[in-house]
TrEMBL record:
CDD domains (UniProt xref): Prp-like
Full protein name: Ribosomal processing cysteine protease Prp
Organism listed in the record: Peptoniphilus harei ACS-146-V-Sch2b
Keywords: Hydrolase, Protease, Ribosome biogenesis, Thiol protease
Gene3D superfamilies named in the record: Cysteine protease Prp
InterPro entries for the chain: Peptidase_Prp (IPR007422), Peptidase_Prp_sf (IPR036764)
Length: 112
């Protein structure tokens, strides 16, 4: 099963961790769909929204991508929040069509 944790400070998303592999009849479809959404967010932040790679902490591995935007003045931007919401909506739609392949959890962080 793929687990996606969404990192949030107050009303603002600032990162996520997606890890694990879906298992079952549609595993490849679900995994590739999740990967497409999460990687598109990451590269949109850098290539389209001008976020410096030095302002993003990231780690990657087999079946895992984790990113965190380090500065609140960056992650509080409306365009960045819209990108997170776009990714989240896509993941929710995957879960509706292919239930049982992923878990999506919002993780509230209290301190900076």
């Amino acid at each position: 099963m793929t687990r996606i944790d969404l990192y949030k400070k107050g009303d603002y998303y600032y990162g996520f961790k997606s890890c694990g592999h879906a298992e079952g009849e549609f595993d490849k479809l679900v995994c590739s769909s999740i990967s497409t959404l999460t990687q598109t967010l990451y590269f949109t932040l850098i290539d389209k929204l001008g976020v410096s790679e030095s302002d993003i902490r990231d780690s990657q591995g087999d079946g895992m991508l984790k990113i965190e935007i380090l500065k609140s003045d960056i992650f509080k931007r409306n365009d960045i929040q819209t990108c997170f919401e776009f990714m989240i909506k896509g993941i929710e739609l995957i879960d509706e069509v292919y239930p049982g392949y992923l878990t999506l959890k919002k993780v509230e962080v209290q301190n900076d």
